[in-house]
From TrEMBL:
Residues 41-142 form the HTH marR-type domain. InterPro entries: HTH_MarR-typ (IPR000835), Metal_resp_HTH_trans_reg (IPR052067), WH-like_DNA-bd_sf (IPR036388), WH_DNA-bd_sf (IPR036390). Keywords: DNA-binding, Transcription, Transcription regulation. The keyword Membrane does not apply. This is Transcriptional regulator. It comes from Paucilactobacillus suebicus DSM 5007 = KCTC 3549. GO terms for molecular function: DNA binding; DNA-binding transcription factor activity.
Amino acid sequence: MDQHIEQSISEQIHRFISNHESVNREQAWIADHLDDIKLKKIISTLSIVSLHTLSALKEHSKTGIELATELNVTRGGITRAAKSLTGHELVDTFKKSNDQKKLYYRLLDNGKKIADVHDQMHQMIDSELHTKIDSKYSNDELKLVNQFLTDMNDFQENLW
C-alpha cells in the first residue's frame, strides 16, 4: 500500500476517534433539546457512560453487571455513572425480594426525559449519516468500509 494512503488513513482514524470522544457536543445538543432548566444544568455533569446508562435502563431495570456487559464498559465505570445518576435523582436502586444480593438500577422520570432526548440525538445522527453515505457510496464500497471498521475495532479490542 502507498505510504501516503496509510498515513492518511491513520490520520483520519485519529480524527474520527477525537471527534467521537467529544462529550461536550453531545451534552450541548441534549441540553438544547430539553425543556427543564434543572435538567439542562445536570447534563454538563454527566459522562457518556452516564447518558448511555440512562438509555440502557429505558426498557427495564438492570444490574451493574448487566449494564457493564451491554455498554461494554467496566463495572467500575457503571458504579461511577450510577453514583452520579442517583445523586441527581435520575435513577434509583433496589433489591428484589427473592434476591437480596443483586442491586438493580431503575430509571426515574427525569432520567427518562434525558434518555429520550439522548436517544433522539442518536437517531438524528444515524439518519443523517445514512443519508450522507447512501448517496455517496455504492453497496460494495459500504461493505468494504464495514469490513475495514470491523477490522479496526477488532484490532483495538485485541491491542492490549
